[in-house]
Write a structure and sequence with these properties.
Largest sheet: 4 strands, mixed
Number of domains: 2
Number of helices: 12
CATH superfamily of the largest domain: Vaccinia Virus protein VP39
Number of strands: 10
Distance between the termini: 25 Å
Structural class: alpha+beta
Bound molecules: S-adenosylmethionine
Radius of gyration: 22 Å
CATH architecture of the largest domain: 3-Layer(aba) Sandwich
CATH topology of the largest domain: Rossmann fold
Order of helices and strands: HEHEEHEHHEEHHHEEEEHHHH
Shape: globular
């Protein structure tokens, strides 16, 4: 979805990797994909990559960073895939072919994992190979009717030993107080404010605008008795929300997650006109449902793959897989408009001249970064491993 976001800006995607065959299938069906390498990033080396990369980006697994996960942090098996990615960035830099920009994306738990120690370790790795780093918070709800707060790390290569202007201390929407606290706690890191404009106000699009019009006899609607059972089991605030929808509030629709509470499955509705954060449907509880009261009675069905695509801003993405696989692909991905906005303002070619070198960072408060690049970065052999 990063590719979906930035190709309209004029970027050309020359390489992609994922370990999941179902992700590969969706990618290839959309983009072709002679450059897609299916396999474990631990087996990937610089020799697998084409030369002359401007931007390398990782939207890496959140399982060990999210509240719902095990909080193993970047020592975890899943979220720890950031390390082989950073090994590759380091190797590119050590070979004097540094990508001018690096973009990382994950849940906001990336900021707080191990009290900020995990993010600081990532920043140290980037700083050691001469990147300045902006830690940013972007929410999909500014662009699409989905609540999806995410942490981005946007790093720019600088002249070796070149100056940098430390980040401002004032909180803002993209750099809220928690980000400012992280910056203040790590004064030796080259943390900067890239010259981004204020983000757009929250979108006025609402959930109802992304819904497909499924016929009443579509098999994806739950049977009436199943709906009645779930509504009867709801906690009072959620039953009350169903009543409000029946009265026509919030366009008569809301999204719902099912949760296990005291051994029972209960439905929890959002109280606003947005979808909740889409997730990968690995278990029944992570599928997001639609509660639709527009016909005068509550009806329930899972959100469709097309609705997931629209909520991620990929409205016209051709979906040639079933709903389940589409939910897997889009639930795990990034919001197209959020990434487009960020890459355009942080890295886009129009801004490149302003961003490269010291010009973007006022000399008066210039600071030299105290860490030296590693002398023994992990550098993989040059033979392509996937061919
Ligand atoms: C948060 S998802 C991002 C997906 C994708 N970048 C997108 O925007 O649609 C994380 C991805 O990491 C992949 N992944 C997990 N472990 C991996 C590994 N060891 N090597 C390569 N990819 C891996 C998962 O299959 C998953 O698709």
């Amino acid at each position: 979805m990063v590719r979906e976001a930035i190709e309209p800006l004029g970027w050309k995607c020359v390489f992609a990797n994922d370990i999941a065959p179902r992700k590969e299938e969706m990618y290839r069906r959309r983009f072709g994909g002679d450059h897609f390498l299916l396999g474990d990033i631990h087996d990937l080396g610089v020799g697998d990559l084409p030369p002359g990369l401007d931007l390398v980006t990782a939207s890496f697994p959140c399982i060990d960073l999210s509240l719902a996960g095990n909080r193993a942090g970047l020592a975890g098996r899943h979220s720890g895939t950031i390390w082989p990615f950073l090994d590759i960035v380091t190797a590119l830099c050590m070979q004097r072919i540094p990508p001018s920009a690096v973009l990382l994306e994950n849940v906001t738990g990336f900021l707080t994992s191990r009290g900020g120690a995990d993010l600081a370790k990532v920043c140290r790795r980037l700083a050691a190979v001469d990147y300045v780093i902006d830690v940013l918070f972007v929410d999909a709800r500014w662009f699409r009717p989905q609540s999806r707060p995410r942490l981005f790390v946007a790093a720019k290569q600088r002249e070796r030993g070149g100056p940098w202007q430390p980040a401002d201390s004032r909180p803002s929407r993209v750099r809220p107080a928690a980000v400012r606290r992280f910056e203040a706690a790590h004064p030796k890191l080259p943390l900067v404010d890239l010259p981004l404009p204020a983000p757009p106000a929250e979108t006025t699009d609402t959930l109802v605008s992304v819904l497909e019009n499924l016929p009443p006899d579509d098999s994806r609607w739950w049977p009436e008795d199943r709906v009645a059972d779930l509504v009867a089991e709801m906690a009072p605030p959620n039953r009350c929300r169903v009543k409000e929808l029946l009265a026509g509030e919030r366009d008569g629709v809301a999204t719902m997650y099912r949760r296990r509470r005291h051994g029972r499955t209960v439905g929890e509705l959002r109280p606003d006109r947005l979808a909740g954060c889409l997730r990968t449907p690995q278990g029944g509880s992570s599928v997001q449902f639609l509660v639709d009261c527009r016909s005068g009675a509550p009806r329930i069905r899972p959100l469709t793959g097309r609705e997931y695509a629209r909520l991620q801003g990929a409205d016209s993405f051709p979906i040639k897989v079933n709903d389940r696989q589409a939910r897997l692909g889009f639930g795990d991905a990034v919001c197209v408009q959020a990434v487009r906005w960020l890459v355009h303002h942080a890295f886009d070619s129009d801004n490149r001249a302003a961003l490269s070198g010291a010009g973007a960072f006022r000399e008066t408060a210039a600071v030299q970064y105290p860490y030296a690049p590693p002398t023994s970065g992990r550098d993989k052999p040059q033979r392509p491993l996937f061919k």
